Amino acid sequence: MTGVKTKELVLWVSLCNIYTDEPPTGKVTFKSPTGLYRSFPTAVFEVEEPAAKEETTAAAAPAEAVVVKDA
């Protein structure tokens, strides 16, 4: 992989390896050619799928309003 960089403090650092451990530990590790590395939880990189349309429209529908008049 070439051309991938990350900003660490005020420096741009080139990355040479991006890997996960075997057996899975739930972390992704990014390593630079200088030996620096940093690990993050895989949950940070998961994409959330949008909620089902039926749930969205039901939640977006306004509730009925009840008007009470004082006698």
Automatic annotation (TrEMBL):
SUPFAM superfamilies documented for this protein: At5g01610-like (SSF141562)
A Pfam family it matches: DUF538
Name under which the protein is recorded: Uncharacterized protein
